[in-house]
Amino acid sequence: MSAPGTAGRPDTSAVPEAGAGRPPVLTEDHGAVRVLTMNRPELRNAIDMPLRLALAEALEEADRAPGVRSVVLTGAGGAFCSGGDISTMTRLPREKAYERAQAAQRVVRAIWNTPKPVVAAVEGPAYGAGTALALACDRVVSAADARYATTFTAVGLAGDMGIYVSLPARIGPARARQMLMLPEPVEGEAAFALGLVDALVEPGAALTRALEDATRLAAGPPLALGTVKRMFSGAPRSPLDVLDAEAGHQAGLFDSDDFAEGVAAFREKRAPRFGVG
């Protein structure tokens, strides 16, 4: 169930310290913005299988919800996500390990497949899968003291959850290779300078800023924003193929209610009301 939110951060004061009986993901609506909070604070929101499945389901539900126009993804207890929960990992035969990996990829597919913008609000650690999860989002708002590290090799793994798409797209393949092979932590200010994150705020302010940005995105034209997401997804394409895709999408948007509303609002010197036609 979603409940209207009034504060900048979902209220977790009544949440017990132990994980038993507690929802792995908290859901709270702020107008047209849905905030999804990973809820294993005692383990800095390390991802186990229940959290993985619950997060995928919550993202897919946000995609289906007609009243939701954008999503904020964050973590409880002053941490974003410390990575995969190593205490739940063990050696697995290939077919079982593939099922586990696909459950993680389902989360990233949900972020990439929805036309709705997804904003990450990062406080504290974002390690391993936490880095990959943040970078899968359309915008990353980071506290200055947040820390990012692609620590997959520390347990003999190479990385998943879209890291081989999102990381080189943000910092280039050469830097991405070094960050994956020699995983040194990168703090928020350095991450911003690298282009790893999109906005830098004071510690404790990431969710507030992410909500502001997501509210602004929620007021934008949903068809156009969905097109922007689609144009940045998929395999590398030739420049001429991109021209064809741009023309096709733009032609469709010219025949949309949002475009008509945008032109009318401009002529009438008022703010547009997108997505209400």
Short description:
With 277 residues, the chain is of the alpha/beta class. Helix content is 43%, strand content 14%.
Can you give keywords for this protein?
alpha/beta, disordered N terminus, about 280 residues, 6-stranded mixed beta sheet, globular, 9 strands, 3-stranded mixed beta sheet, about 15% strand
Task: Tell me about this structure.
Helix content is 43%, strand content 14%. By secondary structure, the protein is an alpha/beta fold. Helix 1 runs parallel beside helix 2. The longest helix is centred in the middle third of the chain and has 20 residues. The N terminus is likely disordered. The chain has a 6-stranded mixed beta sheet, with helices on both faces. Strands 5-7-8 form a 3-stranded mixed beta sheet. It is built from 10 helices and 9 strands. It is globular.
